[in-house]
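This part of the workshop introduces the protein records we will be handling. A record pairs a protein's sequence with a compact description of its fold. As an example, a complete record with its sequence and its structure tokens follows.

_____
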Amino acid sequence: MRIVLLLVVTFGIGFTIYFLIDKSPEDYAVEAIDMFYAYEQDGAFSDSWAMFHPLMQEKFDKGHYLQDRAHVFMNHFGVTTFTYSLDEAVEVKNWKIEEGAEPIDLVYKLTVTQEYKGKYGRFHIVQDVYATMVEGEWKVLWDYNK
């Protein structure tokens, strides 16, 4: 009887820990995109660039990205930081970054809303952002479809 009770308690604890600790792919996608925008928010553009999917890194030379992000947002818009919010992740299969590109088997799409307060007033940028796993790491993509 003690052994059965011990097994039931052990199974119950293990089951609870599994469901409290285990995260879904959607959770990891949200975490990745949240980390990307936290880096952007802090002006750590080198760190955010490193989170780009290889297809995104092909679009932006690292040095150019670092200069451009800081220049556009800080100099042109007159902002030093922003706030942002993320919607829930939605699974998308066979997504393409742009017309003619090879499809990526599985991505997770989130809508990101960035709020800026600068010399031109308060404004929002709303953008669908995608996350996918590449060689064991979550990577970020933007949509270039027309």
